[in-house]
Each structure stands twice: as C-alpha cells, then as structure tokens.
Design brief:
Strand 3 and strand 4 form a beta hairpin. The chain is globular. The chain has a 5-stranded mixed beta sheet with strand order 5-4-3-6-7, with helices on one face. Strands 1-2 form a two-stranded antiparallel ribbon. The chain folds into 2 domains: about 90 residues, Arc Repressor Mutant, subunit A (Orthogonal Bundle); about 100 residues, Nonspecific Lipid-transfer Protein, Chain A (2-Layer Sandwich), CATH 3.30.1050. The chain is of the alpha+beta class and about 220 residues long. Helix content is about 40%, strand content about 20%.
Length: about 220
C-alpha cells in the first residue's frame, strides 16, 4: 500500500526523503529521465519490484507532484508516466548520487542493468570529437529503440525511433556496458551474435571509444 510515513524532521533533506526516500522511488525517477514510459516498461526495467510495489511508488510520486500520468494521443492511446518539471529537477541530484555510489561494491550476482541506466552513463561519459559531423545512431536494447545523436561534442539521448540513422546497434544493456568499457569487444560480440550492428561502423566505434571511464556505472 502507498505510504505516508514521514521523518517529522524540518530539515530540507528529511523533507525531500519524505517524498522520494521510499525503496524503489528514486529508481522509478531514474527510469523516466529519458522520457515517458508505460507501466510495463517500468516493470521490465525494475524486475526486483513487484507490480503492486511499483504501483504504490508511482501513486506516491504522482500524489507528491513528482510524476504525472498521461494518455498518449492516437493511434497509441496508451497511458504513460513522465516526470513533472519539479521531478525533472531531481536529475542532477540522482546522477551525482550515482557517481558517489560507484565506490559501493557491486551486489552479488545476478544483477540487473536497465537500458536507461547505461544510456544515462553514455550520455554523461561520452566525449565525441566536437569537430566531427553530426551523427545519429539507433540503439536497440531489450527490444526497445532509442535515438542517440552526437553533435558539437555532446551526446543527446531520447526514447523512440530516429527519423534516419547513420548506424544501428542492437544488443542488451550489459553487453553495451561491456562495449563502453572495452570497445575492442565489438567485433567478437558481433561474431557470436550478442551484437547486431549495421551502417557506419567507424562512427559507432568512435562513439564507443569516446566514453570515458572515471564515472563508470554512474547510472
């Protein structure tokens, strides 16, 4: 059931935790940084949270004004969850928390890694050549498409299909994480079927190589 527990503390930190301090709340927020998601997409990204628990967190976040529920226009017509303007202000806070958390040992296997998490890392860590031509990539992770666009030394990521793409990559989040750690794994991963890559592979290799390492797994 949704909780209304409070620390009863006037400090702004405590009051913030009254809103987003429940278990899974900040991970729900993380999953919405790159755009709206359906309930089923959130459920898939957070397999450790039961459907009832996820519903509770979403209702709490919606009731607090962090998240809103919206119906997509036809032909989709599906209900999605998205961050409010106030909820989006959590992004630098949550990403900074991720950087702080890289010194925490990894939990025992098996672990999960969502598409949003690894794409947030790519957006933050990649430093493409600012003089390189603008390039658009179609990245498919766990059967969901994302648009990654590089221009002027920046990386932009958004959910959905690009209008056109210079290169396409289809894999899973953990394999993409491994490729960002060691781009030389691309050819072996293509050979054994873990990766399907088409289009301008040199641009794709450049994107993978541009990811820096000091803030690994910040998402």
């Amino acid at each position: 059931m949704p909780t209304s527990r409070s620390y009863g503390d006037a400090c702004g930190i405590a009051r913030a935790l009254d809103v987003v301090g429940e278990r899974w709340a900040l991970l729900v927020v993380r999953e919405l940084f790159l755009g709206p998601q359906r309930f089923t997409e959130l459920r898939r990204a957070l397999p450790g949270a039961s459907s009832n628990l996820l519903s509770d967190r979403l209702r709490e976040l919606e009731g607090r004004g962090v998240v809103r529920r919206r119906k997509l226009p036809p032909p989709a017509g599906a209900w999605v969850y998205e961050l409010t303007d106030w909820g989006r202000e959590l992004e630098p806070i949550v990403l900074a928390l991720g950087i702080w958390g890289i010194r925490v040992p990894l939990p025992p296997s098996p672990t999960t890694l969502s598409a949003t998490s690894i794409l947030l890392f790519l957006r933050a860590a990649a430093r493409p050549d600012p003089n390189a031509p603008a390039t658009t990539f179609r990245i498919e992770l766990d059967d969901r498409a994302w648009t990654v666009h590089t221009a002027g030394g920046q990386v932009h990521v958004e959910s959905g299909e690009p209008t056109s793409a210079d290169a396409c990559l289809r894999t899973d989040p953990k394999t993409l994480n491994a490729l960002l750690d060691d781009p030389a794994l691309l050819d072996p991963a293509m050979s054994d079927g873990r990766v399907v890559a088409t289009g301008d592979l040199s641009a794709l290799r450049s994107l993978l190589r541009s990811a820096t390492t000091p803030t690994r797994d910040a998402g």
